[in-house]
Amino acid sequence: MILNVNTNLLYNYYRLRLVTCQRSNKKLKKANGPLNPVPIRSKLWYQVGIDLIGPLTQTAKGNKYIITLTDYFSKWAEADAVVDKSAGNVAKCVYNVRFDQGFVVW
Prior knowledge:
Helix content: 25-40%
Structural class: alpha+beta
Largest sheet: 3 strands, antiparallel
Strand content: 15-25%
Shape: flat
Number of strands: 3
Distance between the termini: 71 Å
Radius of gyration: 23 Å
Order of helices and strands: HEEEH
């Protein structure tokens, strides 16, 4: 037996019930932990944050990921698109940014 059910009505019913439950349920709310600041060294490119973003929609060149490098001291950010998130691509990106910017600190 096939029931003729309005799927939008059913969806809205359950969506509203879940939202109400999540807002009123005290067990789901967790206290945030304390933030610990990162001590910053006073040298350019001494501390670098590296992030991989993706997978994203593939570009014409076949790139699916973005690697971002951020200098903690100057807050300077660099980004590069890569095909995959292999260690070789990350190392190549760091190497290229290192020599493009001219920083020599290791």
